[in-house]
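ENTRY TYPE: paired fold submission
RECORD: A
CONTENT: sequence, then structure tokens
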Amino acid sequence: MKTIEHQGVVYQLPPCPSCGSNRKRCMRPSGHEAAEWHVARVQLFDEVNAELLPGSEPTA
């Protein structure tokens, strides 16, 4: 998992299940950055977030 800090909060970002990206952005098949995270990554982030912060709201 990649660790990033945003506004004083440290996040552990698991790799995207769709494209394998462990960067802040998902990747397109062409190798360019995607404008948004893949749906599977959003769902995974929500699952990890729920484990770390019980009672947190889903992102989508």
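RECORD: B
CONTENT: sequence, then structure tokens
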Amino acid sequence: MGHNKRTWVTAMFRIGISGSLTALNANAGSLFGTNEPPVISIAELEKSIDTAHDNTCSHIISLAGWVDSFFDDPEYTDDEVADARASVQQSVTFYRNLDPTFKTRVRASVNLPKLNRKLRLSFEGNDEWYSDSFIGGIQETIEESTRESLNDPSLRLLYLFLNNPNVDLGMSGGVRLSEDAFYAGPRLKLRHDLGAGWNAKLTHRTYWYTTDNLKAKTELRFDHLIGQHNLFRQSIRSNWDEEKHDDVGFRHTVTSSITQAFKNDSALRYAWSSSHQTRPDPRWTSTTLSIGYRQSIWRKWIIIEAAPFVTWEDQFGWDPKPGLAISLSTLFEKEPPETP
């Protein structure tokens, strides 16, 4: 009797399990919207991963482009991003125990029509390529700064032999109007997706001037997306001037920055920049820590920035020199990038 009871219980348990499995299979289609349980294939998984990767790359490029446009980066103006762009910036820098200094900067660029974006004309009021992007154009009064903003104008034409998302190769030629000095040389840009939310861009230019021989500039940038609206950038820039080779050699500038982009056309940038030169003896010459807040006012194309900073310089015994830089920029671009 006990044996028959155990047999009956075992049989009922098996029938119950079998019925439950049958019901689950029968209802799988209604639960998942198909007649079969959902199965993700390897191909679909790889496609989803590739889509996520492409979206991340596009977001990095979009955010980096907005940051460069909003902060009026010279590389953005020189790029073939916008068909036409111009900017005017007035800045003043205050140092402790020193008189303020002023700088006015004017630049513009336009893609010439009917040439499939292969020919670009650029203008600079003061040729920062020729002088010095750090000290060129600095004046003691705003009147002098405004008057000198077009003191050393330069016109440049860039023709691209090769122009695709990863490689730009072209030839530049121009003239410094103040001295009728002509210059020409190649320009190369390489872009590469490094994966894991990193992008890299290498830019190199070499110009031969009829008055001062060779000048070369190289910049390597690494951009990394942090969250949805924060961009980390590590850049290494190297300048070389044949005329100053014995005194300076190669001058390298290493900059690390994090930019937070906000929805109300504003951004906050934290930056640490250090400079190094190789002659007469290799040494670090300066380092600067800064925090800059940039905000559109009244109109999207009118932008003000305030950036407190501290600079340490070798020539002053590395004593800290605090300061404040304030700038007002007016940007002219038909369709500026929207905040990502």
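NOTES ON RECORD B: The chain is about 20% helix and 50% strand. Residues 152 and 329 are 20 Å apart (CA to CA).
STATUS: closed
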